[in-house]
What does this fold into?
Amino acid sequence: MTEEMTTEILIRPSKAKDEPTLWTMLMYAAHESSLSGVKANADLVRYVAGWGRTGDVGVIAEQAGMPVGAAWVRLWSEGDHGYGYVADEVPELAIAVIPENRGQGIGTALLKQLLQMAQGRFPAISLSTQSDNPALRLYERLGFIAVAGSEIVNRRGQYSLNMLRRFE
It folds into this structure.
């Protein structure tokens, strides 16, 4: 067994200083090939720029001190929002795990931790995802349901839909 395979994953709350990590994770979440591509897209920039504002909640997964994933939510308003917006009081989720660490349960652990942090703080969490995203099963397993009528052709020419996870 390699050292990499035996190194434990630590999940911790994100801080304002984690903004550079969130930019990198947004690149993976948005299926962009470069950070410059993310930062050149105003629709994507809003997910990370000025991280740490009121309503921002997130978690970072680290392995051997290096970030390998992140999940975060951000509140929007009807006049300024992301792709998965449903209401002002419902933050939108962004989540990513670096490609070489996918399939190890990190995304599940990140999302479970984030849901625990968000419960009691927000009535629900929304997200936008491609309809063929393998993570769709994870979202459904953790209680997200498709928002009826939310299917659109996204910026990449594929189908996306919004999902919502309500808290009791």
About this structure: Residues 106-118 form the longest helix (13 residues). Residues 1-5 have pLDDT under 50 and may be disordered. The helical segments are 3-6, 19-29, 35-39, 42-45, 106-118, 136-141. The domain at 3-166 is CATH 3.40.630.30 (Aminopeptidase).
